[in-house]
Amino acid sequence: MRAKTMEYFDQLIPKGMVLAKEAKEQGKPVVGYYCVFSPIELIEAAGAIPVGLCATKQEPIAEAEKILPRNLCPLVKSSFGFAISGKCPFFHFSDFVLAETTCDGKKKMYELLSEHKPMIVLDIPNSATLEDLNEHWLKQIYRAKEYFEKNLGTEISREKLREVIKVYNEERKLIMELVSLNKHHPTPITGTDLLKVLWGRSFQFNRQEFLDQVKTLITELKEMVANGQFSCSPDSPRILVTGCPTGVGQEKVMGIIQECGGAVVLQESCSGIKGFVDLVDEAKDPFLALAEKYNKIPCACVSPNKGRLSLLSKLVEDFRVDGVVDITLQACHTYNIESYSVKEHLRKNHNIPLLQIETDYSESDTEQIKLRVEAFLEMLK
Ligand code: SF4
Ligand code: SF4
Question: InterPro entries, alphabetically (predicted)?
Answer without folding.
Answer: FldB/FldC_alpha/beta (IPR010327), YjiM-like (IPR047678)
